[in-house]
Design goal:
Structural class: alpha+beta
Number of helices: 2
Radius of gyration: 28 Å
Shape: elongated
Distance between the termini: 87 Å
Length: 84
Amino acid sequence: MRGKRVAAAAAIGVLALAFDTPPSAQAQTRTSAAYSHEVQRARPRIEIHPARKLVRECTSWLEQEARPSGTVIVPRMRCWWRPG
């Protein structure tokens, strides 16, 4: 019984080595794939051209936010358009 287990484990090990890529190649593949994904997927730029003369006003503040890791301070911003 023990001999069968050893033989099965050895066969699995040989198959894993035959089909496995080295860790450095895996890391390089993941890094290059992630980089190419970022380069190809740039966020579109949004441009607004209002018909009448408007000015965008913004106010910003820091606010405490409860998270599972603990309380953190996060930036907040609110903007609106006013005639200008």
